[in-house]
Specification:
19% of the residues lie in helices and 48% in strands. By secondary structure, it is an alpha+beta fold. It has 2 domains: 97 residues, RNA polymerase Rpb7-like, N-terminal domain (Dna Ligase, domain 1); 98 residues, OB fold (Dihydrolipoamide Acetyltransferase, E2P), CATH 2.40.50. The strands form 3 sheets. Strands 1, 2, 3, 4, 5 and 6 form a 6-stranded antiparallel sheet that branches. A 5-stranded mixed β-barrel has the order 7-8-9-14-13.
């Protein structure tokens, strides 16, 4: 049985490769390992790293999320021999780097593809989908010629290569090497970075107007 030992949250900014800010985890795991004879000429640590990377790197599971790599082999016990097997058997402790998104987590990434039903955002090792109904509160139309979305009332435009901020609303991490992420940009301060800047400016404008109105009322009452 493989157990979690410690979770360490790590913020990484991969630019320009992924152009996104996402949360990775360093997870230390204890488990069992078999080393076959063809690796006996290597040290047990090197052999363990080779086997663990083959077993874990690039895989997706509910327990760990998307495993990017085995980053360290902390301990490999002395091998045991079992009658009938040419392999040696070891207890092993190692650390993986994983990406496991959670619902309501806010992520930032680059639009890498636009289709008539939504936009795909590159989030490190996975792409998430923002359905057309989750892009903005405005009515959105898809322009096939320009391959972009346009808001009817606001005139907001969403295109490939735009940097956006979105909230995770659905996570499906099955076994193997595939997973699905559902995203939304309809909440305040989400969406294209230009839209967020406009939201912030509008907030301070409203706040300034409100404070001026309250100050005027105080003068009149005084």
């Amino acid at each position: 049985m493989i157990n979690f030992i410690v979770h360490f949250y790590l913020y990484l900014y991969f630019y320009p490769y992924y152009r996104c800010v996402i949360i990775f985890k360093l997870i230390t795991i204890k488990g069992k390992l078999e080393i076959p004879p063809f690796l006996f000429d290597q040290s047990k640590e090197v052999s363990a790293r080779i086997i663990l990377n083959e077993d874990y790197s690039g895989t997706i599971s509910r327990e760990y999320g998307f495993v990017i790599a085995v980053v360290d082999v902390l301990n490999v016990s002395t091998g045991q021999i079992i009658p009938g097997s040419a392999n040696t058997f070891h207890e092993v402790e190692f650390t993986i780097l994983a990406f496991k998104p959670t619902v309501s987590e806010v992520v930032e990434g680059e639009i890498v593809e636009i289709v008539d039903f939504g936009a795909f955002i590159r989030l490190g090792p996975l792409d998430g989908l923002v359905h057309v109904s989750q892009i903005t509160d405005d009515y959105i139309s898809y322009e096939q010629v320009g391959n972009r979305f346009i808001g009817k009332e606001t005139g907001k435009i969403l295109e490939v290569n735009d940097i956006v901020r979105a909230k995770v609303i659905a996570v499906s991490l099955g076994g193997g090497r595939s997973g699905k992420l559902g995203l939304s940009m309809r909440s305040p301060y989400l969406g294209k970075t230009d839209w967020i800047e406009d939201d912030i400016e509008n907030y301070y404008e409203k706040k300034k107007t409100k404070e001026a109105k309250e100050a005027k009322e105080e003068v009149i009452e005084g």
